[in-house]
Amino acid sequence: MIRATKRLFVLIAVLALFGAACTSSDEPASTTAAAAAATTAPPADEPEPEPEFRIGLVTDTGKVDDKSFNQSAWEGAQQAAAALGADVNYIETEEAKDYENNIGLFLEDGVDVIITVGFGLGDATLAAAQANPDVFFIGVDQFQPEAMPNLAGLIFPEDKSGFLAGALAGMLTETNIVGAVLGTDLVPPVVAFKEGWENGARHTNADVETISTYHPGGLDVAFGDPDWGASTARQVLDQGADIIFGAGGATGNGALIEVASADGAFCVGVDTDQWNTVPEAQPCLVTSAMKLITPGVAALIEAAQAGEFPGGNYLGDVGLAPFHDFDDVVTHDMRATLEEVLVGLNDGSIATGYPPS
Fold first, then answer.
1. Which of 22, 195, 205, 321 is the S-S candidate for 354 at Cβ 3.0 to 4.6 Å?
2. Which residue in 86, 102, 91, 92 sits closest to 54, CA to CA?
3. For residues 79-108, average pLDDT
4. How far is CA 357 from CA 13, 63, 180, 201, 204, in A?
């Protein structure tokens, strides 16, 4: 097997280091880090002391264990809670109309930091931050046009991550047809992934054809529809695609699992290394276009606790996941090309095509 270059995959070790300390839960549960040294329990008639720092996380309309976006943010919150000896809990949003109310529940509970996960929560998060200047807010995938001292938008160059994945797809495809099954185009990061993916494939394969499909529903359903993801992936496979990018929470996961049932087809995951979170996709999962959400969330929470919170926009890192069982499929020449692409993306000599001109 040929080792991936250190520069291309330096972010992978960071993700693994943070992810190993994190776990997810199917039911909302408060998590308090264990003390570093033994302490004396208070007498039975005395209440347990309250944690000095409290963290709340509000998901978008997907579940906290969606195996990609929400789960990565939740793991980051748990990471920070373990490091700080803090209390952490989450609320899963069922419908978009509940954004404001769910944030309000944590405000009533007196938390110190509230993480809201997803572009759709942006307006509700901004309003809450303006009304509660003593509470820190972290908005994942929420660009901040104006900086506020208590609100940080954790944003990522998804187009670069998608471009790298697409560049690999352009080299791997034998049919010269690559596909993408996506969440809604109402969410700019999804569009960035798609544009990067398509232009990356064209960068390494001038003959490639791209078939990309957005979910037709709104924010309430676009990321939680694995059946639609599976059926759409099957349609793209039937049109000759032999590698498909699934980028849309549970919807994208459905696409990955469908591709895994097709002989000779590859798939690409999103947000985190989905080899670990969607094992059903392992038969086809050559890599994942990652946003390092977990360490980004953890770093911002720890900065808030330390009094060093960076209001405004905080740019997180991206990268490709390891190739796992496909390590021998990704050749030395392919890796060298990916390294050249990464250098070009970083120095600006290669443009991702997003936003479209």
1. 195
2. 86
3. 96
4. 35, 35, 21, 18, 21
**Is the pLDDT score of 150 beyond 60?**
yes
Please, what is the Cα angle at 30 between 27 and 34, to 5 degrees?
Answer: 130
- From edge to edge, which strands make up the β-sheet containing 177-182? 209-214, 177-182, 243-247, 266-271, 285-291, 318-320
In order of 33, 100, 301, the CA distances from 48 in angstroms are: 14, 31, 24
pTM here? 0.80
Query: What confidence tier does 52 reach under pLDDT thresholds 50, 70, 90?
Result: confident
**150 CB contacts (<8 Å, ≥6 apart)?**
129, 132, 133, 134, 135, 136, 137, 309, 311
Hey, which residues does 320 pair with through a beta bridge? 289
DSSP H or E stretch at residue 76: helix 69-84
Q: Which residues contact 51 (CB under 8 A, 6 or more apart)?
A: 32, 85, 86, 87
- Other CB atoms within a 10 A radius of the CB of residue 220 amount to 16
- Binned at pLDDT 50, 70 and 90, residue 49 comes out as low
Q: What is the pLDDT of residue 132?
A: 98
Spatial separation of the C-alpha atoms in residues 110 and 119, rounded to whole Å = 24
CA atoms within 13 A on the CB side of 33: 19
Distances (CA, A) of 37 to 34, 40, 80, 85: 9, 10, 18, 12
